[in-house]
Amino acid sequence: MRFIIQRDQLIDSIQHVMKAISSRVTIPILTGIKIEASSEGIKLTGSDSDISIESFIPKEENGMIHAEEITEGSVVVQAKYFPDIIRKLPLKAVEIVADTNFQVTIKSGGAEFHLNGQDATEYPQLPVLHTDNCITLKNAVLKDLIKQTVFAVSTVETRPILTGVNMKLEEGSLNFVATDSHRLASRKLPIELEKKQFDFNNVVIPGKSLSELNKIIEDNEDTITISVTENQILFQTKHLYFLSRLLDGNYPETSRLIPDQSKTVIYAKTKELLQAIDRASLLAKENRNNVVKLQTKENHQLEITSNTPEVGEVVEELSTDGIEGDELKISFSAKYVIDALRIIEEEKVKIEFTGAMRPFIIRPMENQHILQLILPVRTY
Amino acid sequence: MRFIIQRDQLIDSIQHVMKAISSRVTIPILTGIKIEASSEGIKLTGSDSDISIESFIPKEENGMIHAEEITEGSVVVQAKYFPDIIRKLPLKAVEIVADTNFQVTIKSGGAEFHLNGQDATEYPQLPVLHTDNCITLKNAVLKDLIKQTVFAVSTVETRPILTGVNMKLEEGSLNFVATDSHRLASRKLPIELEKKQFDFNNVVIPGKSLSELNKIIEDNEDTITISVTENQILFQTKHLYFLSRLLDGNYPETSRLIPDQSKTVIYAKTKELLQAIDRASLLAKENRNNVVKLQTKENHQLEITSNTPEVGEVVEELSTDGIEGDELKISFSAKYVIDALRIIEEEKVKIEFTGAMRPFIIRPMENQHILQLILPVRTY
């Protein structure tokens, strides 16, 4: 294998595939990056078994030469050293050669590296997905879906299925739902599908996979194609191939958790409410989950308080845009409400309560596609 | 105590005094920030016994009102909570009140915090320095002196005196010297002093104190006054008072370590040399101290190499601006040479060797006031 490649393109690709590489893998060769040179260009692969990422650098694109003088072949290089070496090379062009003993030579200007590589045929083959179950979204739309739900997945392994985001298609919309059983985040995306083009339910994507994917895909109008099989999901852009395993098991039915009536409704400015709760939680650091109390007052006022005897107490008075229904005293995890408010870009939110011990709902005022459900904490 | 203060000024002062506050102190009250309100303004103090920092916010400055409605008094607040609270307050103006039970109330807009404070009279008194031993430098000059030497202090406590920077006055110049016994960094600053104005030697300032000071003082043309007593040093700007203990013991005489002749001299471009050594050290991560080898070649060429059998090897070829004297093969810690080259702003350096086992000297070509001495490593 031999080729000359533009360093900047190579650095981008390395950064992408490194997102899948972990030093804690059971198959030693997976601590490396697979490099494959073909007449079309250079492909890098990284994998930790759960996530596999391929990044392709075409020989030529839009009249720009990315790679040249290609002799086909492949090799696996150590991910611990390769990225730093490429990043620090002195010139824009890099020559990479692998001999039959998997010795890799990297040359740029006066710098010459010889790295012990490994046989690429020992690298696990990525499964090839055969499916018609696919859907195409804009990058920016998928990033929103991820950002608005993935924070609510469970981080503990007691119910592994909850560490994933449930993706399902129902009634003309694509829905992402995540819950850790204390709070739930849900986002609907209305889509038009041709019949039979797409059919799946109970697809549960590991939260970690979506977080890594979100870091790689650019926030733009390009499109990404999602394909699903029984146990894997593939996200594919022009030069990127992101494969993740799906979680086993049945995702719980969450729709019945969502109350369909409310006793108290609060209308508030998203940012003001977020900041008041954030401040109220400052002294609640010591107690588990940063519990704060919220109480409705006269004249559309809210009072948010917390109290840690050894430190002190906070009282936040907040003017709302309106409070309807019963008086309310409720305690909740400041962290959960802050997480929920943070992903709401709309200026105003509506919060619906059905009593101090029942879950409450946070929604942007002018967007019915986002719903956040939070369970209160018993303190009163 | 009561006053209303501009939040931004208060945040700056808090950030300064926080540099001296540690959660690992033996005197519990030192985990707090002392606040003193007087008719002139507000003074904050932080201390960990080794370093004490006072930051003063004048009531009024350049026609700007920083603090008003001041009722004199003092209190100590918990440094764990106070900075976050102030930073997150909703309005620009903050009211701070302490009652006779040291209960502190912080109000801004709809936010009201009640914090348990402590009696300021229990806070250790900072010593008042009485000395005529003082010298005034520009901030930017002092920052240079610190930056060019402090990185070479010892980080291990086997010889505590080496964890400090030796400041001395000799032959019309102020000298900063630091060494960890493997390398030495020295910076001279020619100064003119009136007779008897200033007299000291064997002043050893903890490296940590200088690093913290360097973070606080701004890189500008303002001046800073340095006063020295037997066991303390004070750095004073208009509104800042930075006091550090000095290290006990005699600083070793370092001037005799510096060779006065050389057998091989290399002239090189600072940045090129730095980058080549940095790359050569990439594969030497595993061995202690990142040892690399340097060898002079024909035609003013240098070869810098490293070799870690289980990983691979690097060969860097570098054109110099000239090599004079004997051929040379030498091994050294890449880290030490990188540290030394990094603080040199001049484009070119001169490196003087007196043999493979003798310390070598790195100096900027056009600045005789910086000298870096590095001991080689025996590998050949």
Tell me what you see in this structure.
Two copies of one chain form a homodimer. The first copy, chain A, is of the alpha+beta class and 380 residues long. Helix content of chain A is 15%, strand content 42%. Chain A is built from six helices and 28 strands. Chain A has helices at 7-18, 82-87, 139-147, 207-216, 270-280, 334-342; strands at 2-6, 32-38, 41-47, 51-58, 60-61, 64-65, 67-71, 73-78, 93-98, 103-108, 111-116, 134-138, 164-170, 173-179, 183-190, 203-206, 223-228, 232-236, 240-245, 264-269, 291-296, 301-308, 312-319, 322-325, 329-333, 348-353, 360-364, 370-374. In chain A, the strands form five sheets. In chain A, strands 16-13-14-15-28-27-26-20-24 form a nine-stranded antiparallel β-sheet. In chain A, a hairpin with a 3-residue loop joins β14 (173-179) and β15 (183-190). In chain A, α5 (270-280) packs antiparallel against α6. The longest helix of chain A has 12 residues, at 7-18. The first copy, chain A, starts with a strand and ends in a 6-residue tail after the last strand. The model of chain A has no long low-confidence stretch (mean pLDDT 93). Chain A binds chain B through residues 78, 81, 84-85, 88-90, 104, 110-116, 275-276, 278-279, 282-283, 285, 310-319, and chain B through 78, 81, 84-85, 88-90, 104, 110-116, 275-276, 278-279, 282-283, 285, 310-319. β11 (111-116) of chain A pairs antiparallel with β23 of chain B, so a sheet runs across the interface.
